[in-house]
Amino acid sequence: MTTIRDVAKLANVSVATVSRVINDNGYVNENTKQKVKDVVRKLNYRPNDVARSLFKGKSKMIALFVPDIKNPFFPELARAVEDISNKHGYTFILCNTDNDPNKEMAYLHALLQKSIDGIILVSNTMSTNQIKDMNVPVIALDRKISSEIISVTVNNKEGARQAVQYLRKQGCKRIAHISGPENVSSAKGRLEGYLEEVKNEKWFASDFICTGNYTVDKAFQSTKELLQRDAEIDGIFVANDLMGVGVLKAVESLNIKVPDELSIIGFDGIELGEITTPSLTTMAQPIYHIGKRAAELLIQRIGQPGNAIKSEEHKVKLIVRESTIERGGNNE
Ligand code: RIB
């Protein structure tokens, strides 16, 4: 197969000159340009994408790192990033990291080898310095990394406050919280919002908070412990909808009636919450929109590195379903 070196040798120019002619970037005098083009045609040279990306630094590839591909929130997010990437001519690459820093770094090295054009990170383990050392455009999505890294997130703390205020408005008197992982910024924001709403209540004690890890099983166990410890609890704010499924399972195993005896509200707005029994009231994130915005900001950063872009925080919205009673009887 003809290589770029064969073209350079026959045209008696450097490989870099051939690359500038192929990729039409940088100055080449007209005679030399024509000579290279004649040799390309003569040898029937077809630059491959790797060769092109080595010289152009553009692979036309964008990657999204997610921490748990089994959590339905992330495929919904990935769908948006893929749609926008493809719309702008980029190949989309999805990397599932299992929240494992070693897996993150392994993906990172592999992608940098292939001259990845930009990365969208959902990560709570990668540091600002690691990201800066990559020397590749990065957008943090869903989870802030630092003020130095542009991010697209939602109003986790305010959304949590609204969730607790809603339960209180529906008549709940003792509200517990199944929190997300302590080291995840989205979980921290939701815990802060819950605490701001309940910390001055007479009934509140720290054991009204059970730490979850955003998965069904942990939430199932935590909820059983919580409700066996305090049967007076009549409302639970769960830090994400997937754990909300675990809470519903636990409550069913204890023969507690939802929402008559216990109201439950989640966070995320994943489609799964529509088909649980009862269906799950939730603080819905604009999942597709935040994925779309992260991809648009990254593509903007890739195309115009000098242009200033800003972090964005989007608002969650209450969606009332069957796991909470809407006072006044209408529970649609
Ligand atoms: O369900 C997964 C959770 O992790 C979501 O709440 C999302 O915000 C992410 O932080």
Share of helical residues: 40-55%
Counting structural domains, the number is 3
Biggest beta sheet attributes: 6 strands, parallel
Question: Which residue ranges are poorly predicted, with pLDDT under 50 across at least 5 consecutive positions?
Answer: 328-332
Instruction: Order the strands across the largest sheet as they lie in space.
Output: 2-1-3-4-5-11
Cα(first) to Cα(last) distance is 66 Å
Helix count, DSSP H or I runs of 4 or more residues:
13
Q: Going by CATH, what is the homologous superfamily of the largest domain? A: Response regulator
User: Quaternary status of these chains?
Assistant: single chain
Q: What name does the CATH topology of the largest domain carry?
A: Rossmann fold
Instruction: Report the CATH architecture of the largest domain.
Output: 3-Layer(aba) Sandwich
Give Rg in angstroms: 26 Å
Strand content: 15-25%
How would you sum up the global shape? elongated
Listed once per kind, the bound small molecules are: alpha-D-ribofuranose
Structural class: alpha/beta
Mean pLDDT score: 92
Query: Which H/E pattern describes the elements?
Result: HHHHEHEHEHEEHEHEHEHEHEHEE
Reading off the top of the CATH hierarchy, the class of the largest domain is best stated as: Alpha Beta
The total count of strands amounts to 12
